[in-house]
Write a structure and sequence with these properties.
Layout: E1 11-14, H1 18-26, E2 33-37, H2 42-45, H3 48-58, E3 62-66, H4 75-88, E4 92-97, H5 99-111, H6 118-123, E5 135-139, E6 151-156, E7 161-166, E8 172-175, H7 185-203, H8 212-233, H9 238-252, H10 265-277, H11 281-296, H12 301-310, H13 321-338, H14 355-362, H15 375-385
Parallel strand pairs: 1-8, 2-3, 2-4, 4-5, 5-8
Antiparallel strand pairs: 6-7
């Protein structure tokens, strides 16, 4: 395990009634004007909007609405939110939704307190913001773990880049499974697969010898797999949704990454695919992961064999290490089918095959756990995903 420094700034309120507990404890610490940021309006249909606005007004806050944050938030939307925050003198941002809403607000929180262009600052000058509007997050769709860190995935439509941008940490996060109960099963499972992906992308990083972070990661992966299967039988199972919500948090609060150098090549490929197609994130990962791992497992046989044994509970009897590793990758591919996720880009409705080369040519290449892929290999993987 590598040397590390670990600090976790976000206070988590988890469980039934968590929002009321959080608002009672936290709103007295912030100014009067609160930006209530959300997506397409499901928070209003579910009653969450009225419930939270009631709490804000009880606390004497003035509410500024910022709506319409899209599933793959754009840098243009960030600038729109930052301009509104400046114009209305916003003191605090309450991000209510899933990862896209929270990610957008992390960068709004940075852009709203500076005249510098955040994208240029981070990508051209390699400098990062250190001043932010304070913000809180209320989760209505779990899976990304966005509330647990300061990273945001933003699409710059002008440059055709979908990339990670660093912004604000949420001062507090509300994780109440009741807020996810109206979410369609398909969306819950897609989010849960994103959690599984986060765990795998960390697990297959270096160092490759077994360590405590990886053993915790194995437990989280088993939990996600088990509870997705529970939801397939009963989409209203509150306990399963509760477990998946906390698993999502565990995947991105840094604990699994302690002492690790992570991989995240699958995410980098999917992000850039999303920049060209605006595809569903969890579905894209479900298609990419098995194909990518078939190209990779021989360079990390011990890790993949351990993945097969400890996550998928595949017996090692009668198998070589390489055969066991391959069986683990196949178990993942079989699971994708079992839970009704797409196995090809065509199934996802992506019809323009010509974008694949553009994706391969522009996606970020990570060191990975076992080897660094060339752009030619990335294109080959993308074509196999078709």
């Amino acid at each position: 395990m590598k040397d590390f420094v670990y600090s976790y700034p976000t206070k988590v309120y988890f469980g039934q009634g968590a929002a009321k507990k959080a608002m009672t404890a936290e709103l007295g610490k912030v100014g009067k004007t609160v930006m209530f940021a959300y997506g397409g309006g499901s928070v209003k249909r579910s009653g969450v909007f009225d419930e939270l606005c009631g709490m804000l007004r009880e606390a004497g806050k003035e509410v500024v609405e910022f709506s319409g944050i899209m599933p793959n938030p754009t840098y243009k939307k960030v600038q729109e939110g930052a301009a509104l925050a400046k114009d209305k003198g916003v003191d605090f941002i309450l991000a209510v939704g899933g990862g896209s809403v929270i990610d957008c607000c992390k960068i709004i929180a940075a852009q709203a307190v500076t005249e510098e262009d955040i994208w240029n600052m981070e990508f051209a000058e390699r400098r990062y913001p250190n001043r932010f509007l304070p913000m809180g997050a209320v989760i209505t769709a779990s899976g990304t773990g966005a509330e647990m860190n300061n990273g945001a995935v933003i699409t710059n439509e002008e440059t055709r880049q979908k990339a990670g941008v660093l912004g604000a940490y949420a001062d507090f996060a509300v994780l109440d499974p009741a807020y996810t109960m109206s979410l369609p099963q398909k969306q819950v499972i897609s989010g849960a697969f994103d959690t599984l992906s986060h765990c795998m992308e960390t697990y297959f990083g270096s160092p490759r010898q077994l360590n405590l972070s990886d053993e915790i990661g194995e437990a989280v992966m088993r939990n996600v797999i088990r509870n997705i299967r529970v939801l397939l039988k009963d989409s209203g199972d509150r306990e399963a949704r509760s477990e998946l919500m906390w698993a999502s948090a565990m995947g991105e609060n840094g604990i699994l990454k302690i002492g690790k150098v992570t991989d995240f090549q699958a995410h980098q490929i999917e992000h850039q695919l999303g920049a060209y197609t605006d595809c569903n994130h969890g579905q894209g990962l479900a298609v990419i992961h098995p194909v990518l791992y078939r190209h990779m497992y021989r360079d990390g046989v011990e890790q993949f064999a351990r993945f097969a044994r400890n996550v998928w509970e595949i017996s090692k009897e009668g198998k070589s290490q390489e055969e066991l590793a391959a069986a683990g990758v196949q178990a993942l591919a079989d699971f994708v089918k079992e839970i009704g996720m797409p196995t090809t880009f065509s199934e996802m409705g992506i019809t323009d095959k010509s974008v694949l080369k553009a994706v391969a040519d522009s996606c970020n290449l990570t060191a990975g756990c076992c080897r660094k892929f060339s752009r030619e290999e990335i294109l080959e993987i993308l074509e196999e995903c078709w």
